[in-house]
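anyone else get weird line breaks when pasting these?? whatever heres mine. first is seq + tokens for prot A
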Amino acid sequence: MVVGAFPMAKLLYLGIRQVSKPLANRIKEAARRSEFFKTYICLPPAQLYHWAEMRAKMRLMGFRAEAVKPLNEDAAAELGAELLGEATVFLVAGGCLVLEYWRHQAHQRRKRSERQTAWEAMRDEVGHLALALEALQEQVRAAPAQSALEELQAQMREVRAQLCARDPPSAPRATPEE
């Protein structure tokens, strides 16, 4: 099952990526055309990303990066549009994961509820069977004792024997042969 689930998950991820790519491309185009979108939406995250990336690279190389030169406007707009497009793909994929998680949780709750209902039904059935068993045990206790039953059987045999003794079976008649 797990082996079969992996290709499906990968296929689902690729499908989500393919569906969200056109949306990301539209956002990128809007960022390139609109001055407002470029200035207030794309440039600040791009400059922040550039600043964090350059500081991390400089520190890894052993330098102290005190001042990082900002990107020019065109490069920052392009980087911001790329970041926004990737963020869109990421958010769509994350949303799909969250929805799948909620669906799975609802399925688990439904299964748990069904198990609980079945368990309660079995407990009720066991209770009814216990009551029926008690009633049968009371009937067995109220029934005549085994010795009384044997006495009755012995009396019936005596009565049968007496009846058979009074009325002997007639002998079969032989027909005269001619």
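and prot B, same format (seq, then tokens)
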Amino acid sequence: MELPAVNLKAILLVHWLLTTWSCLVFQGAYAWANFTILALGVWAVAQRDSIDAISMFLGGLVVTIFLDIIYIGIFYPGASLTDTGRFSAGMAILSLLLKPVSCFFVYHMYRERGGERLLCIGFLGSSQDHSAYQTIDSSEAPADLENRAYVPRGY
């Protein structure tokens, strides 16, 4: 399945716009967390070949998904919800809903830059380390066993 070409700059622009609108109501820690992650995204744009920049941006997006759930749950304006507050909360929720999609695209950008799989669960995929693998039919001994001498132990 071919993924649509999504530019990292477009992802940053959408999340920056939604974050600035969300900060009308959700200030403080919400703003710090999201703008810090957007700064990591700018770093990932500036250094196109850096695996560290894109992986930190991806990790930050994942962390802010959980933080945004907490911030919206705690600081959602309840009874006195003005039109501005409703708009700001809606933009925060929309940003939260778009973050997993952004993580999906950023993960594929991470893989394109040469990053390895972040999650390698044994029963879901193949193992990465095949260096010590030897078939049953092979007559050659493994390299580490060839250099060992058999020393009988006394009773």
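btw re prot B: Helices lie at 8-22, 29-46, 51-75, 83-112, 143-146. The CA atoms of residues 18 and 95 lie 6 Å apart.
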